[in-house]
Amino acid sequence: MKHRKQTSSTPFIRVGPSGVHGLGAFATRDLPAEAFLGLYEGRRYSKQEIATKVWDDQLTYLFTLTNQETIDGAKGGNATRHLNHSCEPNCEAVEEYDDAGELVLKFQTLEPVDAGEELFIDYSLTADDGSPPSKYPCHCGSPNCRGTMLAPADTTVEKDAASPGDPQAHAASGNAVQPVHMGK
Fold first, then answer.
1. Are 37 and 78 in contact (CB under 8 A)?
2. pTM exceeding 0.70
3. What is the strand order of the sheet 43-45 is part of?
């Protein structure tokens, strides 16, 4: 039997304990600005499917795309799901179409990153249920920390996959897309 060497879909990311929250994603080597880190992978749900799910305040790894599909990184995902939030991120999530015409979500650095440095994105969540910012506390510790993972008040918001009344937070619109928060 021939064994194939399995290669990582995220060779520039190592997962390890984070000083910000749980597990984090760390650069395995020095990376320049705009370095490709990997695609966000996982099970895809339609807007209708995601609206029927009961999350019961569990930890989630969800990103909703502009086509209203939601990717669940907890189901078939990779190391990109461990990028934690920071109010001063060094990475971003960007949508693009692959060669087959499927909308994908890629992560890339915003600035040069040193080997061993933790990789962060700005979640810029939006609470649809009117929850206060304190329900989504930020622990990034950056000098310009907003104190919350919610988007700044002046950010334009685009609604996504939640059903009305659900205590779910949604991504801010723009060039980069952000995760959907449905739990811890």
1. no
2. yes
3. 43-45, 70-72, 62-64, 179-180
> In this structure, what is the dihedral angle of CA atoms 123, 165, 163, 87, given to the nearest 10 degrees?
0
Summarised one tens digit per residue, pLDDT across range 134-151 is 888 999 999 999 999 998
Query: Per-residue confidence at 54, pLDDT binned at 50, 70, 90?
Result: confident
Using DSSP's 3-state secondary structure scheme, residue 51 falls into helix
pLDDT in tens, 34-49: 999 999 999 999 999 9
Beta carbons of 143 and 149 less than 8 angstroms apart: no
Neighbours of 167 (CB within 10 A): 16
Label residue 49 left, alpha or beta by phi (over 0 means left) and psi (-120 to 50 means alpha): alpha
Cβ partners under 8 Å of residue 17, min gap 6: 23, 24
Q: What is the C-alpha separation between 15 and 37, in angstroms, rounded? A: 13
CA distance 22 to 36: 24
* Mode of pairing for the β-strands spanning 43-45 and 23-27: unpaired
Residue 27: is its pLDDT beyond 80?
yes
